[in-house]
Amino acid sequence: MVFVGCSDDDEPQADPLDGAWSIINISGGFAGIDDDYTQGDIVWNFDTISSEIGVQNNNPTNTIYDGLDSDEYPYTILTVGKDKYLQINGQEFGRMSITQYMMTLNQNCLSTGNGADGFVLLFAKN
Fold first, then answer.
1. What is the CATH number for 78?
2. Which long-range contacts (C-beta less than 8 Å, at least 24 apart) are formed by 83-92?
3. Which of 14, 17, 94, 103 is the most exposed place for a label (fewest CB within 10 A)?
4. Into how many domains does the chain fold?
5. Model pLDDT for residues 49-63, shown as the tens digit of each residue
């Protein structure tokens, strides 16, 4: 007698990047900033099917750097070994580290090597 079963493991898993992410902190840069943001002030909405990011930057404060301006941007993910790098408009933006609820984009880590004076953006999933 042979038993054949189905499990939920056979279903495709949703891409954890897909959906809306709020910037909650930006640190680094030449000036050494460490700015916290209220969730919802700066939102990047990743559409993994169209490979576009919709940015709504409603930052109410005057800061040195708060990411991208409000607009739509094409993006790709470059994979080198186990590392993933976000490219926006054909330009490398930084190494990605993503979990179910948090994401970090580190501009000091590029596929071509490490840099200095870049920014580190911390996101929370909306």
1. 2.40.128.280
2. 83/109, 83/111, 85/110, 85/111, 88/53
3. 14
4. 1
5. 999 999 999 998 889
